[in-house]
Amino acid sequence: MANELTWQSATDNLWAMRNEIWQAFWETLVMVGISVTTSVVFGTLLGVALFMTNKNQLAENKFLYRFLGNITNLMRAFPFVILMIVIIPATRLLVGTTIGPVAASVALGLAGLFYFARLVEQNLRDVPKGIIEAGQAMGASTWTIISKILLLEARSSLVLSITTLTISLLSYSAAAGMIGGGGLGDLAIRYGYNRYQNDVMIFMVILLVVMVIIIQSVGNLLAEKLDKR
């Protein structure tokens, strides 16, 4: 068969596309890098707020906890592709465009923010209450308890949560390609799906799998180094 896929034809085709593949890889790194940073910064703030306003915590506030919790649950339940479409006006306002990896990072960061906030809340709940009480007994301020006790004691778990977040946003970035986000997912859809080039689709899947393995391995190693237990 003239169009039969062989190892030689696949490698020749992928080599001819090397510039496009590199560009897509870079776009994926940009999307994931910006969105992970945004999610970690703002998600940590929200996660700490959720933890601190919960029952029997230092800043217990049932109304505020319920309010923040409901917003977090709502945003986590929002389908990502629909979220990207809904916030197009906000994306255009923030970055001046709705196309490209930076624009896609807005939706990715928003989705990751609320996802990571719940992970942070759970990580902080795992910190032994006796350590917090010891800090209070020594007269530590609320900020000191948060920064020097809670986040410090939970650092190993937080690293694993960041690892989980990064892998999740990497998978979301593939969906971002559907509406002009670019990246490896976009390349897989345009060539692998629309043009029936199975070699491109397979290579993109392998590349994403390798990236996931590397991210998880690095995350596990860092978490192990930071774990004092």
Order of helices and strands: HHHHHHHHHHH
Number of domains: 1
Total DSSP helices: 11
**Overall 3D form:** elongated
Question: Helix coverage percent of residues?
Answer: over 70%
Which structural category fits the helices and strands? mainly alpha
Question: So, the CATH homologous superfamily?
Answer: MetI-like
N- to C-terminal distance = 61 Å
Could you state the oligomeric state of the chains shown? single chain
InterPro entries: AA_ABC_Transporter_Permease (IPR051322), MetI-like (IPR000515), MetI-like_sf (IPR035906)
Subcellular location: Cell membrane
Transmembrane segments: 24-51, 63-88, 94-116, 158-180, 200-223
Keywords: Cell membrane, Membrane, Transmembrane, Transmembrane helix, Transport
Please tag this protein with its features.
229 residues; mainly alpha; MetI-like fold; elongated; transmembrane helix
